[in-house]
Amino acid sequence: MDVPTLVTKLRRLLTAQLALAALFNDIPGDFVEAGVFTGGTSIIMAKVLERYDPSWGGTGGSGTSGPGGSGTAHAGQRSGGSSGGGGAGPPDGWRPAGRMLWAADSFEGTPAPVEQDNGGAAGMRSGFQGEYATSLETFKTNLKEFGLGQHLEAGRLRILKGWFNETLAGAPVQRIAFLRLDGDLYVSTRESLEALYDRVSPGGLVYIDDYGAYTGCQRAVHEFRQRRGIRSPLNIQPVPEQVMFVPPAEETRWAAAWWVKEPHEPTWPPLRPPG
Ligand SMILES: C[S@@+](CC[C@H](N)C(=O)[O-])C[C@H]1O[C@@H](n2cnc3c(N)ncnc32)[C@H](O)[C@@H]1O
């Protein structure tokens, strides 16, 4: 049974690789996906946690941190803000030990594109309002079919249902080891970065699924990196032939992008020089 996803094989592979890298490098923090649709890539991220994160029953990524070593909170810890609702399991503000996986989506599809979504290279998309509408129930059912219902119940896997500009900033996510953005459009990408980037740990991984496919997404990434003075190289998903056989045209044209958050990135808002 394959995961229910729109995401191409290569980008699924890259998603799994980056999730593994976050664990193997003991990067502190949760996994977050903004734009989960029917759950495919969230399932992949959860399966990596199940295999290698001790708080999910896994064996430990690097073998050096011990149980829960890379988590972000102690058992029973309360944290501020609201979960945004829509999740199963424990009440708002309660978080279990260890890492969490946060899954954010309107489940009503994308918002309306804006001017910045237009133009771009030939073949790039602008999107349309309501694209990829699904339902919270479909998402949960798919997770359960892949044996992940227990994590929803335990509150390790939390759903943030609603528009990103309403759910992300106030979500009680503390630190992030792997941030996977898949909201397609300019506004969705910009809002996700603005709300969550500062919570990404040094060494954490930021992945943008739609970088090569959607004009507005690519624009939002370039603007954000420029505004923040981010110099960490923007990696464009490599051409795959050596790794797996796939018909190359779409895989390479719609490449994802990712970068590592460097420890010494400028703080934001920028510190004022003294005097
Ligand atoms: C391409 S799909 C995600 C694909 C998914 N990761 C998979 O594995 O198939 C994009 C998703 O982002 C959501 N989305 C886009 N912009 C959003 C926004 N501003 N607020 C909430 N959800 C948004 C849509 O509802 C849609 O489910």
TrEMBL record:
<feature type="region of interest" description="Disordered">
    <location>
        <begin position="57"/>
        <end position="95"/>
    </location>
</feature>
<keyword id="KW-0732">Signal</keyword>
<feature type="compositionally biased region" description="Gly residues">
    <location>
        <begin position="78"/>
        <end position="90"/>
    </location>
</feature>
<dbReference type="InterPro" id="IPR029063">
    <property type="entry name" value="SAM-dependent_MTases_sf"/>
</dbReference>
<dbReference type="InterPro" id="IPR008884">
    <property type="entry name" value="TylF_MeTrfase"/>
</dbReference>
<feature type="signal peptide">
    <location>
        <begin position="1"/>
        <end position="21"/>
    </location>
</feature>
<feature type="compositionally biased region" description="Gly residues">
    <location>
        <begin position="57"/>
        <end position="71"/>
    </location>
</feature>
<dbReference type="Pfam" id="PF05711">
    <property type="entry name" value="TylF"/>
</dbReference>
<protein>
    <recommendedName>
        <fullName>Macrocin O-methyltransferase</fullName>
    </recommendedName>
</protein>
